[in-house]
Amino acid sequence: MVRRICEELGVGWRELDVDDDERLREKYTDHVPVTFVDQELLGYWFVDDAALRVALARGKPRIMTDDWLLAHH
């Protein structure tokens, strides 16, 4: 769903597999999927279509690096 909505809105997105990184796995394995928009946590376990659209529409695009993800949540 994230891919479809981002394509509809012309917004880039990035998917990470928490199992590919031990630190991410430790932090997020019980919360998959975990969704961030512009470095802000949107939610855990499921993606709400309407909430994602609102977050993307109001967002200020920022690059989310793996280091930021680990340091801030």
> How is the largest sheet built, in terms of strand order?
1-2
Number of strands: 2
What does the overall shape look like?
A: elongated
Q: What class would the helix/strand composition place it in?
A: alpha+beta
Unreliable segments (pLDDT under 50, ≥5 consecutive)? none
Count of helical stretches: 4
Largest sheet: number of strands, sense, barrel closure: 2 strands, antiparallel
Taking all Cα atoms into account, the compactness measure Rg is: 12 Å
Question: Mean of residue pLDDT?
Answer: 81
Distance between the termini: 23 Å
Structure description:
The chain is an alpha+beta fold. It has one domain (2-72). The protein has helices at residues 2-9, 22-28, 49-58, 66-72, and strands spanning 34-37, 40-44. A two-stranded antiparallel sheet has the order 1-2. The radius of gyration is 12 Å and the shape is elongated. The model has no long low-confidence stretch (mean pLDDT 81). This is Glutaredoxin-like domain. InterPro entries: Glutaredoxin-like, Thioredoxin-like_sf. Pfam families: Glrx-like. It comes from Tessaracoccus bendigoensis DSM 12906.
Task: Give the gist of this structure.
This protein is α+β, with helices and mostly antiparallel strands and about 70 residues long. The chain has helices at about 1-10, 20-30, 50-60, 65-70, and strands at about 35, 40-45.
Features:
4 helices; 44% helix; elongated; Thioredoxin-like_sf; Glutaredoxin-like domain
